[in-house]
Design goal:
Order of helices and strands: HHHH
Helix content: over 70%
Structural class: mainly alpha
Largest sheet: none
Strand content: under 5%
């Protein structure tokens, strides 16, 4: 019984790692795209472009929370499924 529990724990860790690995890249790309888009819109309209570091921090935190929730939660659910039963519904 311990082996099955260890295998499930290892699957959960692997799923968590695979779900969390792309986040740093996505966060950086998201911030750069957001800043670039904001600067472009400001330049086209003649507006001043100022960004608060706190706003970037809040956006990163919210993005990280959403990404972890929607990446890790389904992965944990999938790791707990019996593969035969899961494929039966396809």
């Amino acid at each position: 019984m311990g082996d099955a529990a260890d295998e499930r724990s290892n699957l959960e860790k692997l799923d968590d790692l695979q779900a969390a690995r792309p986040f740093p890249y996505n966060l950086v790309v998201g911030v750069l795209v957001g800043l670039g888009t904001g600067a472009l819109v400001a330049a086209l309209n003649g507006w001043a472009f100022l960004v608060s570091p706190a706003a970037i921090g809040i956006a990163l935190g919210f993005s990280l929370a959403v990404g972890l929730f929607f990446g890790v939660w389904p992965a944990r659910r999938a790791a707990g499924l019996n593969p035969i039963e899961a494929l039966r519904y396809e």
